[in-house]
Amino acid sequence: MNSFFKVLRPGINSTFQDLGRFGLQHLGIVASGCMDRLLFCNSNKLVGNNLSEGALEFAYQGPLLELSGEKVLVGVSGNVNFNIEKKSGELIQGTPNESFIVSNGDKIDILSTINSVYGYFSIFGGFNLKEIKGSSSTLVKAKIGPNSGNKLKIEDKIFYKKSYIKEKTKKIKFIIHNDNIIRVMKGLQFDYFSKKSQEDFFSKEYKVSNLTDRMGMRLEGEKLENIVSKNIKSEGITKGSIQIPGDGKPIILLSDHPTIGGYPKIGNVITADYDKLVQKTPNTLIKFKLVDLPIAEIAFREYVCQF
To answer: Which domain holds residue 211?
Structure first.
């Protein structure tokens, strides 16, 4: 079919994502995938898709899109401010986390996220995306994924698979995580750090800096003292790892992290708190809480029950 959305404004960081591209980290290709897994899955629930269907992820300001073709059911998930401009000129304030129908000539203007970073735009039946190694995730730094591995650009055309066929609109209750407590487990090199630094890490607040993107989150706050070695032999790393480079300032690795790293790791964010973490905007103060494996497993079971 020839129906598509025309990109009139791409937004700050708009890419196609799914749940990730797995099994390639030994080749230097990270899984990548959506930043906020729950919001991503909710976006697909809104329009009746499989939870793994590729969606459009945006950060801070999203795209301005104009539909050219058959009407379709879409949804915007997250704490998002957006408008729908009908072809007639009528302007409607959009309701996030609730699916709606757009018709030929209508525009969707995703203005901003509110006290958060990421949101998602999904479409009934899915976008017409080229999969690379079984995934439609975009890894911009490696130029892998749909849209030639790039962010959206002005004048791009976003084609989709199906037109609207009486799929019912849906609404999903969105829970905003207001607390700034991030639970972590001890990292492999936790004992590299002085007792004072171990205590500081769990008692002092850290500020999310502007040096934050899909690859990592740099924190400002109490410097941590390494009493063993500021470098280690490079080893495999995962998202949520909290590395401490030579300057003593923590860096939390996020979804587009490198596959190996040589900085000691003081901790690792548990899976259940990762979505909450990535939605923290610059200048937000966060505090770490130490948990053990049984607590992390209980939190994970509670987390997956939301899907």
So the answer is: 181-304
Question: How far is residue 116 from each of residues 112, 242, 275, 288, measured CA to CA in Å?
Answer: 9, 21, 11, 19
Whether residues 16 and 134 fall in one domain: yes
Residue 171 lies in a domain: no
Within 8 A by CB and 6+ apart from 129, the residues are: 16, 54, 136, 146
Report the chain's mean pLDDT, rounded to a whole number.
95
Same domain, 115 and 202: no
**Confidence at residue 170, expressed as pLDDT on a 0 to 100 scale:** 87
- In this structure, the answer to whether residues 128 and 248 fall within a common structural domain is no
Considering the domain architecture, whether residues 23 and 119 belong to the same structural domain is answered as yes
pLDDT band at 175 (very low <50, low <70, confident <90, very high): confident
Nearest to 56 by CA among 16, 5, 109: 16
